[in-house]
Amino acid sequence: MATTDRNSNDLLDSALDRLRLGERGWEDRPGQREMARLWSETMREGGTLVVEAPTGIGKSLAYLLPALLRRIRGSGPVIVSTCTKALQEQLIRRDVPLACRAIGAPLWAVTLKGRQNYLCRKRAEALLNQRALFAPEGVSEETMEALRSWTERTSTGALDELPGMGIELPPSLLAEIASDPLVCAGSSCEAASGCFAKRARRDALRADVVLVNHALLLSDPGLRATLLAEAGALVLDEAHHVERVAREQLGVSLGYHDFLRLAGRTDARTGILRVVKRSLRRGRGGAVAERIQVAESSIPPVIAHAAALARDLERWLPDGAASARLSRDLDLARLSPSALDGLLASLGSLSRSLEDVADAAAHEGEAALRAEGLEALDEVRARSLAWIETERALRSVVALEEKGVAFFLDRDERRLPRLNRRPVRVGGELQRTLFSVCDRILLTSATLSVGEDFGPLLDALGLNPEDVRSAALPSPFPLERQVLSAVWDGSAPDDPDYSERLGDLVVALATRLRRNTLVLLTSYQMLDRVAARCAGPLEREGIPLLRQISGESAAPLAAEFRAGEGLVLLGTASFWEGVDFPGAALEVLLIARLPFSVPTDPLLVARSEEIEAQGGDPFRDLALPEAILRFRQGIGRLIRTAEDRGTVIVADPRMKRASYGKRFQSTLPSAPFATSSSEELLERVDRWFSLAPVRTGVGDPPEKEAACRA
């Protein structure tokens, strides 16, 4: 064993040395070596390793190098699961090729997506050949021709290639050409030999490195039974998202627009019934026509009842509330029978009527329908199954009796009520379907622990601390010299004029410093109030103000902020993590308040009740650890390279006054100073920036940091 350990470490050291000598500007990083050795030991001995690896460690290469070295010695393939597409792209384009150069082996890496992300040749051919029947209104002939050209040239069939080709398709059209298990004819399909989804699966089973995302890994039992069972190692990067994604995959959400979208894919105006109806031969197919008419007439009642249900549910979301819990104490029996019961009944009628259409058309055959109609029958049956699944989903979210499940309402992207069911705990299911399938697992992220305590994470994921090795690596950056930390307690978040005073502080900082400033807020309501306060003064100073809009992608806003100078960005939600602003792209980070979850959040309430029932303290065991992790993620936006420099200002006096304030203070990059004076704050921050920038020589130049960043 000692010889094996020594050989493994020698190979690992040689690979890292090859990077240091062969890659321009590469710097040796002790944290990266430490993480790589820990992972190498875990793979040799078996087990689960949890590593918190701050920005700059180079964690991607730290886990790739030892895993690939084992692969070339005959172990199973390496599976890497991420949460974001951006990290997946970084791995496949930069980090995996870099690791292969370091070990001197040209290993094969592939990205495996969910089935619905691949083109179905058969469905696309039918759409393009019968575009007058299939194509939705508003899609130009030029777009359709570009789509045809792409389908003939693509080697992967990945639908996310389309935007890069300048082809923008509405979601409804993408759904009609995507691979769909409800429609797939399997091996009997005439296009089976060229099926992109199946080819991607076959490639994944032969590849050395397979990149997937958490949603696919946690939702696809076939993937876990084949690929994961044969894997030599599983890496869960961005592991702080695993619990949330698992809860989403195991849950159900259903709103009015889900019914509307499926109706649009079904009806005789824009949906599949249109194809069958227009393919009827003149004077033939009377029985089919009758059943189509019945199916058509079954759709409006579904939509009407769904709309009535949405109106009734609005009563549980008063005054525009974002969410509300459903329970036996506040149950759905108060809904009018014409809403819930009527919807359930009409769903059953619609699915049966679609089956009748398919049966009648199949019976009549070519005598009644032209070829395109017969080819569409699989799609008709698929719509029937989709409506059956919708009925099942609806019944599951209104059951309200299931233990260990939270039932609640929230709002969809159009602010309409949506029914939800989510498991309160996912650890047991993760243990059964994931952690017991592979015996060499690494979980890693920049933020996993609370004060180097991994207990909350392990408990949430169903992992026994005695069976897990863990390490919290220190930052490789001189953060105390790179960051000025401050607490401004000039106003408390619950003060009536807090938003106005915070807006004034934003204006003062932006006007005095003229540096890119990101303001992290915890709600859109507060964001709107702060924006209203500072928009006019900033405009008069010629300072651009960017603000996040609910329901819109954060990516364009982040890109604009990154490219500008002296901008102010007000962000919430997605801006607390997952966005990088290196260098001068972000120098002033203002955190408006400590990011505790809303105490009335239905899922938080359900989880808190379970903790209380087990004798725990919901604040200590749940609310506080989650807020600290979120706080750390927000702070992580500021320093992304060894050359970055900036200030983080926390505008929440609880940092000083609350008993738990020191828990948050300990996570700051440097010891904070506190003041209630805006002028003193401005003076100290301005003076600090006037000092010469730090030049440490630690880490890589920007292009290398981009390749190795978490």
Automatic annotation (TrEMBL):
- Keyword terms of this UniProt record: ATP-binding, Helicase, Hydrolase, Nucleotide-binding
Q: Name one Pfam family in it.
A: DEAD
Q: Name one GO molecular function term.
A: 5'-3' DNA helicase activity
Q: What is its EC number?
A: 5.6.2.3
State the PROSITE patterns in the record: HELICASE_ATP_BIND_2
Q: Which residues cross the membrane?
A: none
Q: Which InterPro entries match?
A: ATP-dep_Helicase_C, DEAD/DEAH_box_helicase_dom, DinG/Rad3-like, Helic_SF1/SF2_ATP-bd_DinG/Rad3, Helicase_ATP-bd, P-loop_NTPase
Q: Which GO terms describe its biological process?
A: nucleobase-containing compound metabolic process
Please report the stretch or stretches of sequence annotated as the Helicase ATP-binding domain.
Answer: 18-287
The cofactors required by this protein are:
[4Fe-4S] cluster
Which Gene3D superfamilies does the entry mention? Answer: P-loop containing nucleotide triphosphate hydrolases
Q: Give me the reactions it catalyses.
A: ATP + H2O = ADP + phosphate + H(+)
* Alphabetical list of PANTHER family matching this protein: DNA REPAIR DEAD HELICASE RAD3/XP-D SUBFAMILY MEMBER, REGULATOR OF TELOMERE ELONGATION HELICASE 1
What family is this protein classified in?
Answer: Belongs to the helicase family. DinG subfamily.
Q: What is this protein called?
A: DNA 5'-3' helicase
The record lists the organism as Eiseniibacteriota bacterium
